[in-house]
Design goal:
alpha+beta, 4-stranded mixed β-sheet, two-stranded antiparallel sheet, globular, disordered N terminus
Length: about 140
């Protein structure tokens, strides 16, 4: 079930000094990647603010996401790129991308078509709540 993205146009800003990174320098420098070169990407519905899912991106997946208008992830299990919705029809159309204050997580705001989760639920968190003791502020 490989969802591959077509070639992406080059960004209109200066590229990273790292020739293997297609990202603009300021973004490539700001990212704090894990040992596999990946950054967590939290996907949120742009208008309702629902947290839809968590995926992983390397520099190329982020570049494709930023330059094509569709979200591309890097599959850790299959070790390949996949563009959300290419086989399922449940596409994610990019509205914005932001980097957190530590540089180790992305927030990708999207317009989600259909289910975000591979199980068919709207989000990857639907029906998966834990029983917890809730806190109250005084």
């Amino acid at each position: 079930m490989s969802e591959q993205s077509a070639s992406s146009p080059a960004p209109s800003v200066e590229l990273s000094s790292d020739p293997s990174s297609p990202l603009p320098q300021e973004i490539a420098r700001a990212l704090k990647r894990d040992s596999a070169g990946l950054v967590a990407a939290i996907v949120q519905q742009h208008d309702t603010h629902e947290v839809l899912m968590l995926g992983w991106m390397d520099d190329e997946a982020l570049h494709r996401t930023m330059t094509t208008g569709r979200v591309t992830f890097y599959s850790r299990s299959r070790q390949e790129y996949w563009r959300k919705g290419d086989t399922s029809g449940h596409a994610q159309f990019v509205k914005s991308v932001a980097l957190d204050c530590d540089g180790d997580a992305l927030l990708v705001r999207v317009d989600q078509v259909g289910a975000a989760c591979h199980t068919g639920t709207r989000t990857c968190f639907d029906g998966r709540d834990f029983d917890v003791v809730t806190g109250n502020r005084d």
